[in-house]
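Sequence in, structure out.
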Amino acid sequence: MLSRKISFEALLFWEFENSANLYHLLQGKPLRFNELRRLLPDITQRMLTLHLRELEEEEIIKRVYPQIPPKVEYFITEYGISLSPILETLHQWGVAHIERKQLIKKENEQTETD
C-alpha cells in the first residue's frame, strides 16, 4: 500500500513540475533555461533538462536560437497551446491544494497547542 502512495505522489509531482514548465511558457514570451530555473526553484537542473527534452520530443515546446552566438530559448508551440485549459485548471487545483494543506497544518498545530 505504501509503494502505491509513493508512486502516486511521485507521478503527481512529475506531472505538476512538467505542467509548471508549460504554464510559465504559456505566459507569452520565450524563456531561457535559467529563467525557467528561477521560476521553478525546487526543480533540479537535470530534471528541468529532462522535462524540456521530453516536451520538445512531443512537439509541445520548441527550442530556438534567435542570435549568434546561440542563446537557447524555449517557447510553446500551437500544439502546446492547446493544453492551456488543462494547465490552467491544474494550476488552480495546485494553488487550492497548497492552501488546503497549509490550513490543515495550521489546524493541527492549533490542536496540538490546546
